[in-house]
Write a structure and sequence with these properties.
The complex is a heterodimer.
Chain A: H1 2-20, E1 25-33, E2 41-50, E3 56-62, E4 67-76, E5 79-84, E6 88-90, E7 95-98, E8 104-108, E9 120-127, E10 131-140
Chain B: H1 2-28, E1 48-50, E2 56-58, H2 59-62, E3 67-72, H3 79-96, E4 102-107, H4 115-123, E5 130-132, H5 136-145, E6 150-152, E7 162-165, E8 168-172, E9 176-181, H6 187-201
Parallel strand pairs in B: 3-4, 4-5
Antiparallel strand pairs in B: 1-2, 3-8, 6-7, 8-9
The chains are: A mainly beta, B alpha/beta.
């Protein structure tokens, strides 16, 4: 009985903290790849889980760069076309993945402030219903995240 | 006893020669390397571009060994780095196998990609990756020679995007175009096919 009470209390406090944040959205693995010193743009990636019962959408990303947009890449006949999109849908009870070759955040106008390995890039994600979520994008090296096995990244 | 040893040694040499001849003839007969077949393609040829140090270079200066050639632009944060990192990974795999190959990144966005920017971008993936830019005319001529497509998207004058082909070409100094790779080829597949062509053509 005592254990059950504890578990119930734990579940209650967990629910409470989510309710306090007024968000059913959980964001994981926020990362950007390190860039060359003179790079003008960099891509941001993450996983977004929606534990709520309302479909949501990532509609904006704000960070301290001249321009930040949400993009996707489409391929047709070997031609890559990057497209600025209105948002990334995050279905209720489901998740959305921003990954190389697909949805990504594009940080533009880095000139002079490249992404340096292990640094953290603060940003604000804006969801249609969940509102603002503060995150830190970790700068990681290429190769650590499966670039050696490029083919699998498309799946 | 001695005669037997000499005999088997001769046999071994003969067998070795036979195998060698068989291997060569297999290649000469056009055993395909990899899975991308190209029929009568005239891809590549002379180009004149600008190196990372600002010097004018030609295909003869750049393609001095088996080389993977890719067209992209540095402002592209996703596909171009992904493909470039893969090509670099293929070069490292081949290096481990004793094959020395080059990697080249040619920008199709010369307005923004200065020699230094394209050079830094290339070095980010492989110390020996060569980054090339040029005048709009030089880049256009190189792109046409390699039959690649690029088109600047309408919109912002500073933060515009460019649609572009994503093939990687395997080029040899003397014989030119060997084959091309698509986006879904892995570094391992590129290394294997490239090694096959190196064995065939050298």
């Amino acid at each position: 009985m005592k254990l059950n009470t504890l578990i119930n209390a734990a579940i209650f406090s967990l629910t409470a903290s989510v309710a306090l944040a007024e968000s059913e959205i959980h964001v994981m693995d926020t990362m950007v790849f390190e860039t060359a010193p003179t790079a003008m743009a960099g891509g941001g990636f993450m996983q977004i889980m929606n534990h709520g019962d309302t479909d949501d959408m990532l509609i904006d990303v704000r960070a301290d760069y001249p321009r930040v947009e949400i993009h996707t890449t489409e391929f047709a006949d070997g031609v890559a076309k990057m497209i600025h999109i209105e948002g990334v849908p995050v279905p209720a009870g489901g998740m959305a993945t921003l990954e190389p070759g697909g949805f990504h955040v594009m940080f533009m106008g880095l000139q002079g402030t490249p992404f340096v390995l292990d640094e953290m890039i603060p940003a604000t994600l804006v969801f249609e219903y969940a509102g603002e979520v503060e995150v830190m994008f970790k700068v990681v090296a290429r190769g650590e995240h499966g670039n050696m096995n490029h083919g699998e990244m498309n799946h | 006893m001695k005669a037997v040893i000499i005999g088997s040694a001769t046999l071994a040499v003969a067998a070795g020669l036979g195998f060698y001849t068989w291997t060569v003839s297999q290649n000469a007969n056009g055993v395909p390397c990899g899975d991308t077949s190209v029929a009568g393609a005239a891809i590549g040829g002379p180009f004149e571009l600008v190196s990372e140090t600002g010097e004018t270079v030609t295909d003869i200066d750049v393609i001095t060994k088996p080389t993977l050639v890719y067209f992209g632009y540095t402002f592209c944060p996703d596909v171009c780095p992904l493909d470039s990192a893969r090509n670099a990974a293929a070069a490292y795999i081949l290096e481990d196998q004793g094959h020395d190959i080059g990697t080249v990144f040619i920008t199709i966005d010369p307005a923004r990609d200065t020699p230094q920017i394209v050079g830094d971008f290339a070095d980010n993936f492989h110390d020996d990756m060569i980054g090339l830019t040029g005048s709009a005319e030089q880049v256009d001529a190189a792109s046409k020679a390699y039959r690649t497509y690029y088109r600047k998207q309408e919109g912002d004058p500073e933060y515009y995007l460019v649609d572009h082909s994503t093939q990687t070409y395997l080029m040899f100094p003397e014989t030119g175009f060997a084959t091309f790779f698509k986006r879904d080829h892995t570094a391992e597949q590129i290394a294997e096919t490239t090694a096959c062509f190196i064995d065939q053509l050298s």
